[in-house]
Write a structure and sequence with these properties.
CATH superfamily of the largest domain in chain A: Alpha-helical ferredoxin
Number of domains of chain B: 1
CATH class of the largest domain in chain A: Mainly Alpha
Number of strands of chain B: 2
Number of domains of chain A: 2
CATH topology of chain B: 3 helical TM bundles of succinate and fumarate reductases
Strand order of the largest sheet of chain A: 2-1-5-3-4
Strand content of chain B: under 5%
Structural class of chain A: alpha+beta
Strand content of chain A: 5-15%
CATH class of chain B: Mainly Alpha
Helix content of chain A: 25-40%
Oligomer: heterodimer
Radius of gyration of chain A: 20 Å
């Protein structure tokens, strides 16, 4: 049932990476519960622009839950209180009339704030550039099918590949660790024959990059898994550990 | 050196040293369990270990494990705090499926160290340390000299104090929480993986941890109960062990 709700938004406003930020409160009146969270922010921004104020800066792109651009730490959860969904798939029906909704950017040394709620997730691109690829031509679709791959392996690789690189794992982690992301990216290739050739080099290179960029050490709290919009399992982390440790023992 | 420079290497050190300590706890609990049935049997274990060369070698190894585990814990904690960034979240919520213990391992670890310090004063300093420095009595209880290998008497004397027993119970509860996360997490860090195995490892570590902690708690509780029921129990028990 659609209805309208009114609530208070506490939004983090920060003019630049080096400037000090602070929360600012906005009263939102009569927002339909079928509005998505990002549409609600669009409404806020329209009001701000009409009043001649600076709109709130936030990342978004496809608004279909597949691009990994939207972020936002809503009421203590990356991507808000919905599970298995990105912020763009969060709807106002998750909130009640009179709520105070706190919206913060991802907070991690690896993801510095650019402005307001937008953070620089370039660190993930750097980790991918360090080894998140195969250097050989795997050919077209028929060639791909010519190599037998078990259903089990294919499923695990596909599950790992569903990572959209949004950074919610780092945002959720009390250690600021990017292990869920790195392990998903290592797993999606290491599970398949095309990716196995470079598996050891890849695990070492991507992990070294992750450490270099200032992400923390994983302590298996499982917060990342719980908050991941794609429900990536931490068994990927164990796989990365094993790949990495066995690669180091072989050296 | 990858055990220092890489995050997985550091975690591997934590995990292997932690598993070593769990193995130690298993042996320690098994030896304590002897005291539940026979003070004489327990003292045979004490004599067998004491300050013999193999016990000393094992103690040095054990101390090394403890020191490595603690030093790495603090290094990791500092690095992880730094990785969190300078700004903290205003609102945080614990997501479903996150154990409380997993987010408070350092705090639990500190409680464990404090309990350990007291435990060393209660027993190790009176037993192995006394033997190392060449002493012949652990303490004098009501005019009776207790030998450093007379662990059973020390148990009876120490655990007749309800406050001591309360502290030991809190200490062991902290160990339970610490291990309930630490055990499966250590196996996970080594690379034992699989969607089914995660659940199995969690169950195995919870059951194993519970068995160990119950085995430990049984000794102080049994001796406290006996001393409360019979006020002459401790003196009689100590006389029997001489």
């Amino acid at each position: 049932m659609e209805k309208n709700i009114s609530f208070t938004l506490k939004v983090w406003r920060q003019r630049g990476p080096k400037e000090k930020g602070a929360f600012k409160e906005y009263k939102m009146q009569d927002i339909p519960t079928d509005t998505s969270f990002l549409e609600m922010l669009d409404i806020l921004n329209e009001q701000l622009v009409n009043k001649g104020e600076e709109p709130v800066v936030f990342d978004h792109d496809c608004r279909e839950g597949i691009c990994g651009m939207c972020s936002l730490y809503v009421n203590g959860h990356p991507h808000g209180p919905s599970t298995g969904a990105t912020t763009c798939q969060l709807y106002m029906r998750k909130f009640k009339d009179g709520d105070v909704i706190t919206v913060e950017p991802w907070r991690s040394a690896g993801f510095p704030v650019i402005r307001d709620l937008m953070v620089d997730r370039g660190a993930y691109d750097k980790i991918m550039q360090a080894g998140g690829y195969v250097s050989i031509n795997t050919g077209g679709v028929p060639d791909g099918n010519a190599i037998p791959i078990s259903k089990e392996k294919a499923d695990l690789a596909m599950d790992a590949a569903s990572c959209i690189g949004c950074g919610a794992c780092v945002a959720a982690c009390k250690n600021g660790s990017a292990m869920l992301f790195v392990s998903a990216k290592v797993s999606q290739l290491a599970l398949l024959p095309q990716g196995q050739v470079e598996a050891a080099r890849r695990a070492k290179a991507m992990l070294a990059k992750m450490d270099e960029l200032g992400f923390g050490n994983c302590t298996n709290t499982r917060a990342c898994e719980a908050e991941c919009p794609k429900c990536i399992s931490i068994s990927n982390i164990a796989r990365l550990n094993r790949e990495f440790i066995s690669a180091k023992f072989k050296d | 050196m990858w055990l220092i420079n890489s995050s997985i290497g550091r975690k591997l050190v934590m995990s292997v040293s932690g598993l070593g300590l769990i193995l130690f706890l298993t042996f320690h609990m098994a030896m304590n369990a002897v005291a539940l049935f026979s003070g004489e049997g327990y003292n045979m274990v004490c004599e067998f270990l004491g300050a013999n060369w193999y016990a000393l070698v094992a103690t040095v190894g054990l101390a090394a494990l403890v020191v490595i585990h603690i030093v790495y814990a603090f290094i990791l904690q500092i690095q992880n705090r730094r990785a969190r960034g300078s700004e903290r979240y205003a609102v945080t919520a614990k997501p479903k499926g996150v154990e409380w213990a997993s987010q408070n391992m350092l705090v639990l670890g500190i409680i464990v160290i404090l309990g350990l310090a007291l435990h060393l004063v209660h027993f190790w300093s009176k037993m192995q340390l006394t033997e190392i420095v060449g002493g012949h009595e652990a303490l004098v209880y009501q005019g009776l000299a207790i030998a450093p290998t007379n662990g059973a008497a020390l148990i009876a004397i120490n655990f007749s104090n309800p406050l001591t027993v309360a502290i030991y119970v809190i200490w062991l509860a902290a160990i339970w929480f610490h291990l309930s996360h630490g055990f499966w997490s250590a196996l996970h860090t080594i690379g034992w993986n699989g969607k089914n195995w995660i659940k199995r490892l969690e169950v195995i570590s919870n059951v194993y941890t519970t068995i160990i902690v119950i085995g430990f708690i049984a000794v102080p509780l049994l001796f406290l109960a006996q001393s409360l029921i019979d006020s002459n129990f401790v003196l009689e028990y100590v006389k029997n062990t001489l």
